[in-house]
Each structure stands twice: as structure tokens, then as C-alpha cells.
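Researcher: Let's do a round of design. I'm pasting the C-alpha cells now; please hold your answer until I've finished.
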């Protein structure tokens, strides 16, 4: 069993153990078991980055063994410069989520913590799988714990939001399954994703594959117009669910474009790039305007996530190293920043039980430590230089300028809209005079809340001030991917 298998199955085993740990009378022990399981899973993933060879685009830490021999399906794992950071990010966010739910979740604690640990292992499986069917199994299996998290611990409309989340993402993935079966037969009976990259497919077949993958991954990102499930899911999900949904699960779709759409259907990707770029720009501009009119803090951050993920898909389909690397960096930074934003909303909700912006005002007067963290994360959400939110957006804009200046100018409006809706919320929630008795009675963050926000603050500033380790790891893999897309053009 290699490191990747341990990174997948350790949190799943820990989660299963928690499910068997008994009812809420053992809640204290359950919380510590969950934290130990999450920390152990995180430390297992660290050597994947520290021991990563940045000089090759080949898959590293590979594992392969027969799984369903009759159909030549293998349990095959590996990571390259594109996927390795997401394995670490998944384990990192899981630790933060366990700390965030420490005191807040008081009912079915073992099931709550167990669901997140199992979900963590499944998401690591998505980023590690290099067998098509194994990828699909992990990709679909992630829906189950998140469906339960929203449906059991969510808000008043949690059942509606959970069903909508499940149906949208499941239906989108069915066409991907058809595409995987087609590729299996086309490759002579193999589910090896890397061998699919070399298949000489005609443009007509590539186009059908491209849209089959698009159906699955666009819903997961989510791209406009199939984004409507996300605000509902975020609003109804518990804080931990919103954090994982924004920080990791949206990235599964964007990652799918890089692992499947671009390398397997390179010519169709170029042919239909204008379509993806158009949808991405609509997400950046239109969704940015929608975020401006939101009165619910969670909805505002949910819509901002859609706009930021539009930047990611834009970067991928301008076919430049700056654009693709910027898109990946944006995915990682968005994991830190959006996760932190939802945690801040959760801190306020735990005290006031309202997400409405109008219910607050002058929070900085009664919660100065918390307000300092919240404003830092809000600035990162705006794309302030020196924070993680700036790096990826800047790289994508630079890449877009080389592709088309006016397209880049339109994309750059996200910095304006992002500042407008984020600062609008910050002004009304945190600054000014104390608005009401609820705010007057607020107490500042405790040691646990300070710890979880401090961890994310360090990550946001470290990535913003020194992004070189992130770009160095992905550089060779991105270059190789773009070379493959460029040289496989049909004559």
C-alpha cells in the first residue's frame, strides 16, 4: 500500500470507525478521534508534495493492481503536478472543518465527523485515480456523504437543497459514464486514462466526448447556466459542508477538464474553446452582478464562488501556460479564501442565528479579533495583492491579454465587481456603529475559532506573498499538457 492508498483509505477507515463509535454520550472522545484521523490523513499527504519531483510530467507515487479483472479494470493511482496540490488541500481543509465543528455540532457528532472523513478520502481518490472507472466511482461516491451532510445537519430547506444538489450532479455525470465506456472499447478494452490521451480520435468523436465530459464537469464547477443548485446547497448546508463544498468539491469539475476534456479531446477543446470562454465570461460578469444584490451573506459568497470559478475555466481554455497555471493557482487559493469566508459567516451565525447582512452592523466594535480575520479574508476575496486571491486572477488576466485584450478587459471586471460586493458586505456587517442589541452582546472568538481562522490566514498570506512553490510543482505538467493539446491537431 503506497502513500496515495493510505491518503484515501485512512480517513475512510477513521470515518467508518467513528460511525461505529456510539451515540452522543461519547461525543468528546469522538471529536478527538476525528481530529486524530484528520491530522494523520494530512501528515500522510505532506510527503507527496515534499517528495515530488518537479522535473518530470510523469505520474508519481503510482500504484496499480487488478480490481475487476474480467473487464481489465485496475485500482490505479498516481499524481502529477496538476493533481498533487489538491490531495494536500483536501486533507488540510478536512482538519479545519473538524476543528470548526468541534463545539457547534452537538447531535449525531460521530455521524457528522465520520461523513467528513469519508468524504475526504473519496475526494483524494478522485484526484489520484488514473483508471477511468475508478475515477467515476470516486467521483460519484462523493455525492453520498455531502448529500447526507446537507440533508441531516442543514437549514430549514435542507431536504430540497440536498435533492437538488444530488440530482443535478448525478444526471450530469451519466453522460460521462457513456463517454468512459466508449473510450474503453475504442482503446481495445482499457480504462487507463493515460492511454486514452494517445487515442487518435476523429473530430466528430472528440466533439461528442467533449460535450459528454462537459455535462459532468460544468455542473460540478458549476458553470452558468447550470449553477442554480449551488446557492441553495450553500445556504442550507452546515458551515463545514459549505467549506468543503466551496474549497474542494467545486474543484473536482475543473480538475476533470484538465484530466479528461483537454488531453482526450484536444481538437474539440480548441474547436469549442469560444463556447467555454463565453460561459466563463458570463459567470464572471453576470454572476458578479447577481452577487451585488444579495442580502444573505452565504448566498453572496456562493455567487462569488461561481464568478471565481469562471476565471478558472477561462484560464484553461485560452491554452497558455499562464492561463492554465493561473487557473490551477486560483483553484487552490479559492479553496483557502472561500473556505475562510464561510467559516467567518458560520462564526456569526452560531452567535446570532442569522445570515442576513441587515442583522449585523458594527461587529468590529464587539469582536475586534474576529473582524481582523474576516476583513483579511474579504480582501483576499477581492483579489488584493499580497493575498492568495490575487495570484491566480492576475496570471489568468495576463494570459488572457496575450489571447485577446478585450476578452481580458471583460474578465478583469471581476476585480471591480468582487471589490464592490465584498466591500459592501464588509462595510455593513463589520464597520460603523453597533447596529442592534444582538451585535452589542457578541463575544469575540475563542481559542478554537482563533486557531481555525489563523491556520487559514497563514495559508492565504503565504500563498499570496510567495506562490513560487505552487507554480514550480505544476509547471512541467502544465507545459506537457499544452504541448499535447497543440501537437495533436488534426491535419
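Researcher: That's everything. Go ahead.
Model: Designed sequence:
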Amino acid at each position: 500500500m503506497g502513500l496515495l492508498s493510505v491518503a484515501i483509505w485512512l480517513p475512510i477507515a477513521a470515518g467508518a470507525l467513528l460511525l461505529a463509535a456510539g451515540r452522543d454520550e461519547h461525543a468528546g472522545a469522538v471529536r478527538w478521534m476525528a481530529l486524530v484521523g484528520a491530522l494523520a490523513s494530512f501528515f500522510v499527504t505532506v510527503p507527496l508534495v515534499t517528495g515530488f519531483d518537479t522535473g518530470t510530467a510523469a505520474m508519481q507515487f503510482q500504484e496499480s493492481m487488478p480490481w475487476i479483472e474480467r473487464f481489465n479494470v485496475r485500482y490505479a493511482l498516481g499524481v502529477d503536478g496538476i493533481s498533487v496540490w489538491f490531495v494536500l488541500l483536501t486533507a488540510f481543509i478536512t482538519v479545519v472543518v473538524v476543528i470548526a465543528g468541534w463545539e457547534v455540532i452537538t447531535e449525531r457528532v460521530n455521524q457528522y465527523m465520520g461523513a467528513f472523513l469519508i468524504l475526504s478520502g473519496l475526494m483524494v481518490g478522485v484526484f489520484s485515480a488514473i483508471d477511468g472507472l475508478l475515477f467515476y466511482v470516486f467521483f460519484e461516491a462523493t455525492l453520498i456523504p455531502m448529500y447526507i451532510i446537507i440533508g441531516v445537519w442543514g437549514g430549514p430547506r435542507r431536504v430540497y437543497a440536498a435533492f437538488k444538489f444530488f440530482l443535478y450532479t448525478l444526471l450530469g455525470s451519466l453522460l460521462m459514464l457513456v463517454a468512459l465506456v466508449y473510450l474503453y472499447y475504442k482503446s481495445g478494452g482499457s480504462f487507463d486514462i493515460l492511454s486514452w490521451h494517445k487515442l487518435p480520435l476523429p473530430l466528430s468523436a472528440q466533439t461528442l466526448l467533449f460535450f459528454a465530459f462537459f455535462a459532468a464537469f460544468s455542473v460540478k464547477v458549476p458553470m452558468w447556466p447550470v449553477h442554480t443548485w449551488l446557492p441553495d446547497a450553500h445556504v442550507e448546508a452546515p458551515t463545514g459542508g459549505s467549506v468543503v463544498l466551496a474549497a474542494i468539491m467545486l474543484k473536482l469539475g475543473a480538475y476533470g477538464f484538465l484530466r479528461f476534456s483537454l488531453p482526450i479531446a484536444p481538437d474539440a477543446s480548441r474547436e469549442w474553446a469560444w463556447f467555454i470562454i463565453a460561459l466563463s465570461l458570463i459567470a464572471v460578469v453576470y454572476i458578479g452582478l447577481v452577487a451585488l444584490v444579495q442580502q444573505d451573506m452565504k448566498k453572496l459568497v456562493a455567487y462569488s464562488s461561481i464568478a471565481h470559478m469562471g476565471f478558472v475555466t477561462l484560464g484553461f481554455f485560452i491554452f497558455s501556460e499562464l492561463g492554465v497555471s493561473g487557473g490551477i493557482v486560483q483553484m487552490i487559493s479559492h479553496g483557502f479564501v472561500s473556505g475562510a469566508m464561510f467559516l467567518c459567516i458560520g462564526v456569526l451565525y452560531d452567535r446570532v442565528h442569522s445570515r442576513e447582512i441587515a442583522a449585523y452592523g458594527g461587529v468590529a466594535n464587539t469582536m475586534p479579533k474576529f473582524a481582523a480575520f474576516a476583513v483579511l479574508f474579504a480582501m483576499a476575496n477581492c483579489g488584493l495583492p499580497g493575498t492568495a486571491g490575487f495570484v491566480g486572477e492576475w496570471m489568468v488576466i495576463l494570459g488572457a491579454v496575450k489571447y485577446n485584450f478585450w476578452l481580458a478587459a471583460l474578465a478583469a471586471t471581476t476585480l471591480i465587481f468582487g471589490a464592490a460586493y465584498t466591500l459592501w458586505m464588509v462595510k455593513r456587517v463589520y464597520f460603523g456603529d453597533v447596529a442592534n442589541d444582538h451585535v452589542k452582546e457578541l463575544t469575540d472568538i475563542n481559542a478554537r475559532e482563533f486557531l481555525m481562522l489563523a491556520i487559514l490566514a497563514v495559508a492565504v498570506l503565504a500563498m499570496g506573498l510567495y506562490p513560487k512553490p505552487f507554480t514550480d510543482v505544476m509547471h512541467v505538467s502544465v507545459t506537457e499538457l499544452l504541448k499535447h493539446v497543440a501537437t495533436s491537431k488534426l491535419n
